[in-house]
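QA checklist item 7 of 12: single-chain prediction sanity check.
[x] sequence parsed
[x] length recorded as 419
[x] structure emitted
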Amino acid sequence: MYTHYQVLIIGGGTAGIMLSAKLLREQKNLRVAIIEPSVNHWYQPAWTLVGAGTYNYPDTRRDEASVIPKGATWVQDKATEILPDLNTVKTEKSGDYTYDFLVVAPGVKYDLDGIEGLRDALQQPNVCSNYIDPRKTWGVLLNFKGGNAVFTQPSTPIKCGGAPQKIMYLSDDYFRKTGVRDKSNILFATPGTTIFGVKEFLGTLQEVVKRKDIIVRLGYNPVKIDSQRNEIHFKLTQPGQQPFTPDDKLREHLEGTDTIVIPYDMLHLPPPHIAPDVVRNSVLAVQEGPMKGWLDVDIHTLRHKRFDNIYGLGDVAALPTGKTGAAIRKQAPVVAAHLLAQLNHNKQPELKYEGYSSCPFITGYGKMVLAEFKYDNVRDSDPLISKFVDTTKEQYSMWLLKKYGLPWMYWNLMLKGIM
């Protein structure tokens, strides 16, 4: 096996596979390698549906070998260190690899110790996370008999920021179907100042919350889970701004001046997300500020800000937009165009990434709002779809797109570099 490649890619997830496919479509003789340890490739956007009992979990998996593009070399190993001054990547088992160009796309790492008690809580039968095991989430829903169903999220960036709400809306539908909703309180607690940042879609989501009688708490940052007492502790992100009035239904109480304790009978949350160690502990990471630890790239070209022959895309990149597969679909063509222009000593293209991302907000069984946006929370809906459908409203057609259309597009078009 070669140890030097024209393009070396760290990560064989959506970003790494889609980009390598695009590069090899443009330049078939390119010597490309993908460093990826996992033998499984998952379509994680369907895990929300798995968690609600309406999608088959095995259908979200393919063999990694089956998605590696023809012409690319798969290095089944883990990248452990990047030495950009030496154009070298160290691996766990197979030694060093050198490159002309490096693409960094290893995704994210779940920090199970980022919230006190989270690791232990996830072992309990009433605490779940679609991000880790959506099958368990479905089991928790099946066994829920009423009480407090708490849905929350950490203060870190997360993959698909709308996912904690999606499973909540589906859970509400399921609880109504099984007759336990009138014995339940559904709480959505978020560290943020709003449930969604794009105003064109916010109104619809607020209507959904009102219709479903969901309690919303803004500025609630989860900091501790006491799984022995079935309680979750939230730090107020803006304490003192308004007096705390406990909700008797929730049995919540104040500890100190800025900590709210709420008992739960069911708890769902994503774990805090951080960049994988190979990025976070390297000189390639943002060194200070709110994006500290994430890959330091130009937000429009996705080229590294300090190393001209390094690019990054996908969830690991320090970009002020949502971490989604939809974002990668717009990022990959930009990286491919700029990288190939550099490689072939051509003029750099005008093509730029404008921050496009998408959140298919499932608001119930058979209902979805397709929220598409770009940098600065500006709506960026597909002009063709918008001609036929008002994507700011709940639509059955968008549910069909989510459940059937998008998975097909992922396996048959995106991963083959066609779109």
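[x] summary fact logged: The chain has a mean pLDDT of 95.
[ ] second reviewer sign-off
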